[in-house]
Request: fold
Amino acid sequence: MDSLYAAGSERQAAQLAESLYESSRYQVFVACMDQRGTLGEELNRIGFRDIPSFKLTSFYNYTAFHQLTRFTRFLREQKIDIVHTHDFYTNVFGMAGAWLAGTPVRIASRRETAGCHTKAQKFVERRAYQLAHAIVTNAEAVSKHLIEEGAPGNKIVTIYNGLKYERVSPRHGHEETVKQLNLPPNAHCRFVTIVANLSNPVKDHPTFLRAAQRVRQAIPEARFILVGGGRLIDKTRALAKELGLETDVFFIGNCQHVADLLSISDVCVLSSLAEGFSNSILEYMGASRPVVATDVGGAREAIIEGETGYLVQPGDEETMAARITELLRNPERARSMGRRGREVVEQKFSPAAQLAQTEQLYDRLLARVSERRRWIGNWRDRYEQ
Reply:
């Protein structure tokens, strides 16, 4: 994993490591490039002690060479059979180190359709994919995008994210949650929530706020909650004020107890211009909330249009507002959509399903290694005879 921060890719990697550990079919090691973050404590409680770190300052200096040497030695000493990396930096570092160590199975990952990488970085990542025996994506939309970039389709395997229900199981009731989050105590307030970082313009909070302005005009009791931190928060606050929403929009920042927040939300929204497969959408559905999201990345692979929520085009604040308004005006329909969304998550996006598909991939790739070794052994026997 890249770091131990509880971000989307890192949380999915940690969750998969936990599932593999509990399954006990494989002996699992966790390594990272940056030991900062709260996931280290969680992984320690599970049983992962002394997580090795291979911190880089650049791919192009002595430190990179030193860390790659350390990583290669670690793989050989621990007799690692499979290296599975989870994002851009670990793909490049991990595939190179695993190739140098002669690790039999090398698995890279791709989790987004539109990245912010330079041409040079994309070139390096393509080289990493060449060293990989498989590339795991978290949505068919990501797989399609990867093939369009030139990656070999026979290497690509889609394994959806899984959602642990503890992540969306509230600890407190409505009144206590409202109080803790400093939200208006008015029982008539209707909460519309978006969980998305405020670090990247791709999350397109301006479209959400412009839709919120329209919703507020139609539903005076509507209030809007933005969960997430980042460098764009001041700019987003200024836009909320410009739209006349300064008393109706609440910036929660990074929230450790998303489940409590989702439990008081009437509608949950995602306004992104691009995504891979959104963990936020899974959390919304897992918490039995109706979803209004932009039709990007793997959103339509999770949301069933008109059944668990609605899909709108990126940047279309008018339709987004209309869908949110419709759900606020029809609470029974909203609850029905939420219940159906929960069923879909249970059927399609459980950690058990993620584990089963991952272990099947590991088994299949290791079987190829065994078959290749048998073929080489037979060829040597015939040659020596």
